[in-house]
Amino acid sequence: MWKTLVLSVALVGLCAVPAVFAEEKKAARESSKDTGAEPLVYKSSDLVGLGVRNRKGDDLGAIHDFVVNTKDGRVVYAVVSYGGTIGFGSKLFAVPHQALSLKAGDKNYTWDVDKEMIDRTDGFDANRWPTEADVRWNRFNKTGTPASPDAKKPEARKDEARKDEARKDEARKDEARKDEARKEEVRKEEVRKEDAKKDGEKGHRAAGANAIRRLSSMVGMTVKTPKGETLGRIYDLPIDVNNHRIAYAVMHYGSTLGVGGKLFAVPGSALEIQSLQLKPGSVDFVLNADKSWFETHPGFDSTRWPQRADDTIGKPAAPTK
Fold first, then answer.
1. Burial readout 189-213 (b: 16 or more C-beta within 10 A, e: otherwise)
2. What distances in angstroms separate CA 174 from CA 4, 161, 194, one per listed residue?
3. CA-to-CA separations, 80 to 66, 100, 191, in angstroms, rounded
4. What is the mean pLDDT of residues 192-207?
5. What pLDDT digit, counting tens, does each position of 8-48 carry?
6. Are the beta carbons of 223 and 273 closer than 8 angstroms?
7. What pTM does this model have?
8. How far is 86 from 223, CA to CA, in rounded Å?
9. How many Å apart are CA 85 and CA 238, to the nearest integer?
10. How does DSSP classify residue 298?
């Protein structure tokens, strides 16, 4: 998604040298092809705080944040906060976004896992955020849980027992297939790791780990031109929930953040995270565009957010004849 820098274990810090980005559009095409899903884009500000329930309607907490790979725009995982009081004493779970379901009109995310399992499972350390989803939740992927059978006659119970054994056998085979799929993912991760090294991203155990950031840490960041002139700030990072990735970055231009001004749907591939002052903690988004461009363009209607980025932003102007 964005050209990016190395970050700390807590997923908040960056180094000084950005890596070249060239993967967002390819990854978006592959994701859409894999899922066969049309984009369904929500403001991330509307998703954070949204409730999470299972198919039984049990309360499983709420969305606390998202962790994204700024190299290709993927949502690495959703952070589900469970238990506690007003954020205190709660457990945090790194749930693969693919394990969650949200359809148009839904008031909650659906996570097909038993509440009892959440109760007895530890979350991750809030001071050491993981760089990948918890593999324990991979098998809970919107499959549904069979309802308990009603009491039946002896013959029916025997037939049900045979069917149950067949289901168990199929479940064992399915688990074996998933194990093989996980091994294949590990092999792919090794390939991505090697590619990341070629891009100058060294010292991390997974490719793209340098690019992993909390979504909340990027909202409000300043957007500047390569010369250091301020263009605006990141207002939101809408998520395509069907294809599990950041759809685009919303930049607020002009006036005070959130009041007046204009909103632009900026392609992630047009942005780069840099420290123009080469100082720790001094990090901005850099957009290769002139301030005059935003002065003469209207932005999008704040009451009708787009499903896709404006691909004209950040592109070189056509030469005049």
1. beebbeebeebebeebebbbbbbbb
2. 38, 19, 30
3. 9, 10, 29
4. 49
5. 334 543 333 333 233 555 555 554 444 557 889 999 999 99
6. no
7. 0.70
8. 33
9. 28
10. -
